[in-house]
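Curious: why this fold?
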Amino acid sequence: MSLTFIAPPLQQINSEIARHAGVDLYVLRLDLMHPWVNGNKWFKLKYNLLEAKEKNFTTLLTFGGAYSNHIYATAAAGNLFGFRTIGVIRGEERLPLNPTLSFAVQQGMQLVYLNREMYRQRNTPALEEYLRQRFGEVFIIPEGGSNLNGVRGCTEIIADAMPTAGYAYAFDHICVACGTATTLAGIALSLHEGQRAIAFPVLKNGAFLAQEIESLLTNYLASGLPSPYSSPASWELLCDYHFGGYAKVNDELLLFSQQFTEEHGVPLDYVYTAKMFYGVMELLKQGFFCKGNSLLLVHTGGLQGNIGMEKRLQRFSKI
């Protein structure tokens, strides 16, 4: 497995919809950084890995669902950087393993299953103590890499990815799909005052994430960790493009994703980026953005999940 990470390319989207709206549209291809540890997952993991290494931990333990991009990336990163990994999976074991969990096992990850009631306690001291008693001294990374280390990594997404110093300032709006809000928080801390971060929650009723974002921003700025600016740029949540909730997909979203890939050569994952890209294109049609604006859409990876999602959809279509 390669240790080589490449700078994510910046790709312009030559869309008739964007041209009609008078908007320049670009995609930051974080999905191309590395075959297995890519997207926002790398940025959320990197400082967790560094802290674990500095504190001489040899084992990483983290949490996720059966199709989790975070589980997939953590297993690969652990293998790359010499850590033993343990994945605590929500729900019961189902055999044969799906492609996500099969890959995790191939990378050396030990899978442990928790029923949903216990899994809901994953962020409590009681469950962390139980896991440490069971597995010894492990470095615990929250589900999705959603901690201050994760925010710190995400402050580097825009500035580090731009090809020339200051080029990131060319974008008026930076758009990203939103699950735990960690990526949005990091991006908001990395933008200057004239820019705006727009998050598209993939969860139903995602407005609750505003409180999560405020908490992450407040705690990060109080932590003393490095921050490009002393206060975040403006941000907003657009909650109407979840397609029914987390991991919910319908024919309209599938068709959009397929057509976008064919037209622009950018594959989209159904759980996150397809919903955000769909939302952006709908907003362009509605005149939401001002003529002359420049938009940067952050492709957060997660394409590995499409394999399992497509198999699930095929199975349901036969019922």
About this structure: The CA atoms of residues 164 and 193 lie 20 Å apart. DSSP finds 13 helices and ten strands in the chain.
